């Protein structure tokens, strides 16, 4: 495990405390499986466990891309709602699944307190769902639904790209999550949105994947429709 991790020194953007957090050596990762909602299963380690940085001094938490300078009002919010309630603890060692889940939930709280993008909040929920999936924990479903909710809000309210997601990728994820919850008609609609986007031409592999999932959703929709029609009145 230690050969796959290294220490990174970080300065907390809220309280300026210097701490170390574990990072994954991505070049050494071995992929076992790629799932339809972008979850990737690796052989020896789950890099998602280490995506959220947590300050042990004040509790400020976020991914590297969101670990950016805070304004005075934002620091006041962190102090009032997080630091005053924070029980100091260190997330800078090798993390268990429960510690990774706690780190993501802390980041999600901060995302909502500081009114970060819906896309970012949705991404946190999606990764949380993946960790619960790894544990065969049914709470996965709850966070997939949260992710879908945030992505829908982001697509209609925010300028994309946001939270590391562009318009095509988000439309695909909305479609895929809708399909997983039996919203086959909605899934087809969102897959079409992604396929109709001019930027899809730059994403050949994703384009092929969306077409595959579109056919899958269409088959599931037709099967469900026939089943409903065959039911006695």
From TrEMBL:
It comes from the Bacteria. It holds the Pfam family DUF2225. Gene3D superfamilies: Tetratricopeptide repeat domain. This is DUF2225 domain-containing protein. It comes from Alkaliphilus pronyensis. The lineage of its organism: Bacteria, Bacillati, Bacillota, Clostridia, Peptostreptococcales.
């Amino acid at each position: 495990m230690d050969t796959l991790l290294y220490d990174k020194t970080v300065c907390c953007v809220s309280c300026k405390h210097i701490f170390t957090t574990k990072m994954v050596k991505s070049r050494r990762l071995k992929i076992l499986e790629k799932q339809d909602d972008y979850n990737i299963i690796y052989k020896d380690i789950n890099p998602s466990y280490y995506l959220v940085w947590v300050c042990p001094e004040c509790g400020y938490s976020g991914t590297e891309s969101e670990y950016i300078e805070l304004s005075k009002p934002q620091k006041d919010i962190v102090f009032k709602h997080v630091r005053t309630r924070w029980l100091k603890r260190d997330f800078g060692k090798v993390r268990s699944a429960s510690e990774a889940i706690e780190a993501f939930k802390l980041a999600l709280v901060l995302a909502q307190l500081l009114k970060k993008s819906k896309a970012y909040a949705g991404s946190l929920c999606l990764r949380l769902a993946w960790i619960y999936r790894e544990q065969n924990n049914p709470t996965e479903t709850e966070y997939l639904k949260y992710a879908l909710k945030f992505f829908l809000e982001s697509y209609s309210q925010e300028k994309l790209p946001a939270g590391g997601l562009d318009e095509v990728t988000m439309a695909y994820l909305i479609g895929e999550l809708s399909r997983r919850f039996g919203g086959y008609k909605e899934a087809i609609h969102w897959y079409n949105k992604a396929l109709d986007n001019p930027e899809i031409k730059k994403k050949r592999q994703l384009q092929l994947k969306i077409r595959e999932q579109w056919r899958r959703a269409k088959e599931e929709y037709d099967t469900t429709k026939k089943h409903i029609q065959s039911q006695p009145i």
